[in-house]
Automatic annotation (TrEMBL):
Residues 179-295 form the ABC3 transporter permease C-terminal domain. The keyword Cell membrane applies. The chain crosses the membrane at residues 21-41, 174-198, 219-244, 264-290, 311-331, 337-367, 388-413, 615-636, 667-693, 699-717. Belongs to the ABC-4 integral membrane protein family. It is a multi-pass membrane protein. This is ABC transporter permease. Pfam families: FtsX. Its main location: membrane. The lineage of its organism: Bacteria, Bacillati, Actinomycetota, Actinomycetes, Pseudonocardiales. Keywords: Cell membrane, Membrane, Transmembrane, Transmembrane helix. It is found in: Cell membrane.
């Protein structure tokens, strides 16, 4: 009889083996579906970037000019592309001619719904078509392409839309690889737990075959064939589940919108690699687990006590930590995440190396110090078979690690929210060359008058204030205008022109000079304009903590600085009702310029934080479900593996409640200690990940929640062993 025939006969004749095969196949299916889905996320991000890259490329050439900027309407972001002439833009739709406009479907719908002054008038010209999904980042994206006369955009600088899109793509890819590493391992734990459901029974059967004369090759072939049935069926089912699963995933928003179904289409290489690789790995793991049966069939048949794990396993944590630090350094230097993800996988896998030693140590401690029957039984179990005992907690440990790391990363990212320029939330502003500031201010004022919108227009020239001791960013703006548009508490504007700053800066006008700035850098070759000696320095009152370093200089003190550098035109709407009309007027008056607001900055941050919270919640739910399932299956298999032991204890008069308490104890003890270590490791890894983004993390009280939840899940999962234990008690002891 060949190995395949033997495996088929075992599956037909042994119900327990069939149950184990079905559970193994289901575990492999879940793991395969998750791995395929997560492996398509980086490709999905690339697909978004590829079809929308034309939106973010500012081009200036003989054929024409295109400028990309971000706009905002009713809490939604608009990507606006202003074109003059016919610039070369590979992968873009056909650009409109001067006086023509292209809109995305969602933006065209909004333009028809909102008052013209709130949105439609921002895109002067005739709408000649819509932009199809093939040119959008996501189906709901708001995009406008506005045609202008040649030369109309020559003096305009592009905005930050390209940077924002690239930042979102990098973060998504980063999270995708982290999720692939962290969720693939719990999936493998689930597969291993299911395959161990009848491990002891299989070992005795194979040992009997070896003692009856079967060669090692025949034994290995029988197990490989038996495992291959479940592995191939599970992998095929997982690949099939991936198709409907992606139809659910495309509705999970990221970066402001959902996805196209084609984004999550796995490549043939991915399908082939996962479809072949997963069964091969599962079969290889099953074959490697036969060492004891092949080498010592008598010991396997008699279930001799296994060797205790050695303390050298603790070195795995040291090695994994060193590798992770190396991966962080590599990622910071070159931006390559491959080594970092490999080191993260090493940290996750190190828990499975150290866990059995920790379990054995706990078993020795409790079996030595405790004499309560249930605790003594649990301690003996942990000491005699620590690998099997730790198996029930391994999935929970990984879930706790994932949760602690996620709850360290999330507050770190949230701590970066806020900020923005020093203008009030309702203020809209645009940066222009100082030489054109007066002309642009007049155009905006005239357009506001034509639109009927009521607003205050102020000018603030960006400068650097230098003193003999230090330098500070500052605005040259009059006190009344600063009181109307800025977040700085300027106080009373009565009195002579002055410099205003927070008292903690201890500024003095002695030796103070003001240097105009261009863009975000100080023009070092431009001589500073001295502040008149004796000019007063007045304190702000009730300053916003974000603006402690801000300085205001009255224009009367440094009139020579107003014609150079960069000036911000800040417009404060009289009411919220005028806000969208004011933005429209500014867009028409300054075509191609980036109209910014603190609200826009905070809105982008809220979108990103919402995305992070969403993917964190989804990841934690998946990890918890996988951990709970693997713990429940392992708890049930531990009863199956010890049918003889439990049968003997029951026959000797041991109450079922004592055995049930012993099962809960042996699940809770390693889970409690291991999850504390996993929680600490997750926090440490989270801090390391935050360092990639130059974020200083802080420990949130919520990082302790996964530890408590992990122990609770481990204990509750042991309830799955209750029915199995009652079934053992009802069976004749002679059966085993």
């Amino acid at each position: 009889m060949n190995p395949v025939q033997l495996a088929v006969r075992v599956l037909r004749g042994d119900p327990r083996t069939r149950v184990s095969a079905v559970l193994t196949a289901l575990g492999i299916a879940v793991g395969t579906a998750l791995v395929v889905l997560l492996s398509t996320l980086p490709n999905a991000a690339d697909a978004r970037t590829e079809r929308s890259s034309w939106q973010y490329a500012d081009r200036t050439g003989a054929a024409g000019t295109s400028v990309s900027t971000s706009d905002f309407v009713r809490g939604e972001q608009i990507t606006r592309v202003d074109v003059a002439g016919n610039p070369d833009a590979p992968g873009a739709p056909r650009f409109p001619a001067p006086g023509q406009v292209l809109l995305s479907p969602r933006l065209a719908e909004l333009s028809g719904q909102l008052p013209p002054g709130d949105l439609a008038e921002r895109f002067p010209g005739q709408v000649v078509g819509t932009i199809t999904d093939d040119y959008l980042r996501y189906p709901e994206q708001l995009v406008a392409v506005v045609g202008h006369q040649p030369g109309a955009l020559d003096a305009v600088e592009g905005g930050s839309a390209a940077y924002q899109a690239a930042e979102q793509d990098f973060l998504l890819k980063f999270l995708a690889w982290v999720g692939l590493v962290l969720l693939a391992v719990p999936s493998l734990v689930l597969v291993a737990s299911a395959s161990r459901l009848t491990a002891a029974r299989r070992e005795r059967r194979l040992a009997a075959l070896r003692l009856a004369g079967a060669t090692p090759g025949q034994v290995v072939g029988a197990v490989a064939a038996e495992t291959a049935f479940a592995a191939v069926a599970g992998a095929a089912l997982g690949l099939l589940l991936g198709w409907p699963l992606r139809l659910l995933v495309i509705h999970v928003p990221w970066g402001g919108g959902t996805w196209l179904a084609a984004d999550f289409t796995p490549s043939l290489a991915t399908v082939a690699g996962v479809g072949l690789g997963v069964p091969v790995l599962v079969v290889a793991a099953a074959v490697l687990g036969l060492r004891r049966v092949v080498r010592a069939p008598v010991g396997a048949a008699m279930a001799h006590r296994k060797k205790a794990p050695k303390a050298w396993r603790l070195l795995a944590i040291v090695a994994a930590g060193a590798f992770f630090l190396f991966g962080l350094a590599t990622a910071k230097d070159g931006g390559n995440l491959v080594v970092l993800m490999a080191s993260l996988a090493g940290v996750v896998l190190s828990a499975s190396v150290v866990g059995p030693w920790l379990t054995a140590s706990l078993g020795t401690l409790f079996s030595t110090l405790w004499r309560r029957p249930s605790t003594l039984l649990a301690g003996r179990r942990l000491r005699d078979d620590p690998k099997a005992a730790y198996r029930s907690a391994s999935g929970v440990v990984l879930a706790v690690f994932v949760g602690s790391m996620a709850l360290t990363l999330l507050p770190g990212f949230e701590s970066q929210s806020g900020g923005g320029r020093s203008f009030q939330d309702s203020v809209l502003y645009v940066d222009v060359p100082s030489a054109q500031a007066q002309q642009q201010r007049q155009r905006i004022t005239d357009q506001l008058a034509r639109s009927g919108a009521s607003a205050v227009v102020a000018s603030a020239t960006r400068v650097t204030v230098r003193t003999p001791e230090n330098s500070h960013s500052a605005l040259v703006i009059s006190c009344p205008e600063a009181a109307q548009v800025s977040r700085m508490a300027v106080g009373s504007c009565a009195g002579p022109p002055s410099v205003r700053a927070d008292p903690s800066l201890e500024l003095s006008t002695a030796g103070m000079t003001v240097v105009p700035t261009g863009g975000y850098g100080v023009s070092a070759d431009v001589p500073g304009v001295p502040v008149p000696a004796g000019a007063p320095v007045r304190p702000f009152g009730g300053q916003d903590p974000d603006l402690v370093d801000s300085v205001i200089v009255d224009p009367a003190l440094v009139p020579d600085v107003l014609g150079s550098g960069e000036t911000t035109l800040a417009v404060a709407p009289a009411s919220d009702a005028d806000r969208e009309r004011v933005r429209t007027a500014m867009t028409v008056a300054a075509p191609g310029a980036e109209i910014n607001s603190r609200e826009l900055v905070l809105g982008e941050q809220r979108t990103m934080l919402s995305d992070l919270r969403r993917v964190t919640a989804i990841g934690l739910v998946i990890a918890s479900v996988l951990a709970g399932c693997s713990a429940a299956i392992t708890a049930a298999s531990s009863v199956v593996d010890r049918r003889r032991t439990f049968g003997a204890l029951i026959a000797a008069g041991t109450p079922l409640r004592v055995l049930a308490r012993a099962l809960r104890t042996e699940a809770a003890l390693p889970a409690l200690v291991a999850t504390i270590g996993a929680g600490a490791g997750g926090v440490a890894v989270g801090f390391g990940m935050l360092s990639l983004f130059d974020i200083e993390g802080a420990i949130s009280p919520w990082v302790f929640a996964p530890v408590a939840l992990g122990v609770l899940v481990a204990v509750l999962a042991t309830s799955a062993s209750g029915p199995m234990l009652r079934r053992v008690s009802a069976e004749p002891f002679a059966e085993e």
